[in-house]
Amino acid sequence: MLRANFFKFFKYKKNSNHEIVQYNSNKNFSVQDQIKTNIIEIDQKILEISKSLIQAQFVKLRSTFSKSNNFLEQIGKNAYKTEVEDSINWHQKQLKELYFRRRELEINLEKLKGIFWLNRIKRLLRIILIGFFIFLTLFIFLSGFMIIIYLMPLIILILLGYFLSTKRY
Q: Which keywords are on file for this protein (predicted)?
């Protein structure tokens, strides 16, 4: 009685369709191929924008170190400099957007392949390992520094004894 009321409450409909459904995995592979081609296209765009950004930064560097004594050239140089800085900012913004889009596509591809959590765990372990090595390096450096500070009177005493013993009267 309770069960019947429960199903009536949620308007449960029993599945009367007993047909065999065929799974078509080609759709999954076509989506993977499409994502891979999108990633390749984004990589090419990233390469082009990176080259353009380097060229714009090189132009800014040349204009910064160019010497001009003419007043009109100074005004033109300042206007040119703002245009170059705007271009650099635009290229940097485009690169950030492309990198974010590429990362989203990689995550979607990993989810389709079923390796998303495995890669996430690998990244987490890599970050933990790098943090551990940085902490260990700092610990060794600081402990070595503290040992040198504590042994400084002994080192000074040994050096003083050496200089006194080698001094000729």
A: Membrane, Transmembrane, Transmembrane helix
- State CA 86 to chain mean position distance: 24
Asked if 136 and 87 count as a contact pair (C-beta separation under 8 A), the reply is: no
94 CB-contact burial (10 Å; exposed 0-12 / middle 13-18 / buried 19+): middle
Taking the CB of residue 91, how many other CB atoms lie within 10 A of it?
19
Residue type, 114: G
d(C-alpha 159, C-alpha 167), whole Å: 12
22: left (phi over 0), alpha (psi -120 to 50) or beta: beta
pLDDT digits (tens, 9 = 90+) for 7-52: 565 665 566 666 776 666 666 678 889 999 999 999 999 999 999 9
The full set of domain ranges for the chain reads 24-117, 128-169
